[in-house]
Each structure stands twice: as structure tokens, then as C-alpha cells.
């Protein structure tokens, strides 16, 4: 596959990142065929233009949002959705990418969740830890999961972005599996996280999915140490019991998730 690198999640030149050299080396080591549409661009319009150039390029198969961030919502009204609909590329990203993937899958696109390029060798220091990413970038296929019955109708992403998008642009979840993950800011605890899930529950109380998947959420304790994501999910699972729906678990750091309807 031919990959396009884009950035709508941070108003910053990707080439200025401290991880940039290592990120590019990851692509070279993996023999990934890519075109960079975000390095050397740091302004809103330039980054948007790079994205549209990638979408319009008939040689591009997959568009990779290089990082999470906080700015994609600023682009939702400026993206040429007609072009996105016409070209129907595949898209990969994480976190802030949820804003985009929600709308894109409604337009019939395939979106994939679970990997950013930024700091990829920091988060996955061993070659075998990032093999699933390299394999996906080369083939466009995700490995099947033995523990989760993935279907052609899985949606979701970051929890409070998912809640926001569902509230703004309702989607019928009755025939879909809802994937959810959460990552906190320093100082937030389980009580804060529960608040965000309670918001989601309020929004979907009359629009339940056929099942839920909890991903690899990230939280730190008071000492700044990462909490085992399975302990986070153990805390969350009982909150879903009153829905009477199956709640699965998957480590989306090791299993890229396909979103489509």
C-alpha cells in the first residue's frame, strides 16, 4: 500500500517534533511506501491543503493521521467531505482522530484505530511490538482477534469524543459494536473517568449498541505511574451491567481496530 502522512490534530510542523527522525526511521526500516503531506507545514490552511492533496492523490491507499492531539474539531467544517466521499480512502489514527473517523465512516469510508506515527518507537521499542502496525501498513489487513467478535459494524474511539459526536450527529447504534478507550490528563482519577462514561451512558440510553468493547485505556496514579489497563477495565465493566449487553476487552495497542458501518 501507499501511505499518506497527514496532520490535522496539532497546529505544528511535524518535522519539528523531537521524535521526527526516529519516526521516519521506523518507516524506512519497515520499507513503508509513503508520501509526507505534513512535514514543513504548521499553519491551519497549509495542513488542511496537505490533507486534501493526500485525499485527491489516486495513488494513495491509506491516509495516516500522524498523532493524537486537540485540533481536529477545528477542521470538521473545513474538510472537503465530498472529496472524502468520492475517493473513499482508508484512514488510520488514534485519539483526536475520533472526530474525523465518526464522520468518515458515516460516508462509507473504512477507518482504523490504534496507531499513530509520532513516537511509535518510544511506545513500541521492540520490533515485535510494532509488527502488527508494519503488517497493516503493508497489507491493509488487520489480524483477527480471538477474544472479540469484530464485525463490519464497529464504531467509537476516545470515549468523551465519541460522546460528543453521538450527541451532535446521532448515529443508530443498534446494529453496531461500540469500541471505547480513555486516556486521562495528570490529576484525573477513576471518579473523573466514571463521569465521562456517565455522560456517554446518558447519551446512548435510548440508542444502545449490540455490544461494547473496552480498549487499552491509559491512566496514571498519584505517583505518575501507569495503571494496568486491565484494572481500569475491571473498574468499568460493572458500570455496563444494567444495559444487559456483552462487554469485551481488547488491547488496541496490539490490535488495530477496524471502524465501518
Please give a quick description of this structure:
This protein has 261 residues and is of the alpha/beta class. It is 33% helix and 16% strand.
Keywords:
261 residues, globular, Rossmann fold, alpha/beta, 4-stranded parallel β-sheet, 6-stranded mixed β-sheet, 10 strands, 2 domains, Glucose Oxidase, domain 1
Fold-level CATH name of the largest domain = Rossmann fold
Structural class computed from helices and strand pairing:
alpha/beta
Strand order of the largest sheet: 2-1-3-4-5-10
Q: At the fourth CATH level, what is the homologous superfamily of the largest domain?
A: Murein tetrapeptidase LD-carboxypeptidase, N-terminal domain
What are the secondary-structure elements, in order, as H or E?
Answer: EHEHEHEHEHHEHEHEHEE
Helix count, DSSP H or I runs of 4 or more residues: 9
The first-level CATH class of the largest domain is given as Alpha Beta
In oligomeric terms, what are we looking at?
Answer: single chain
Give the second-level CATH assignment, the architecture of the largest domain. Answer: 3-Layer(aba) Sandwich
Largest sheet: 6 strands, mixed
Uncertain segments = none
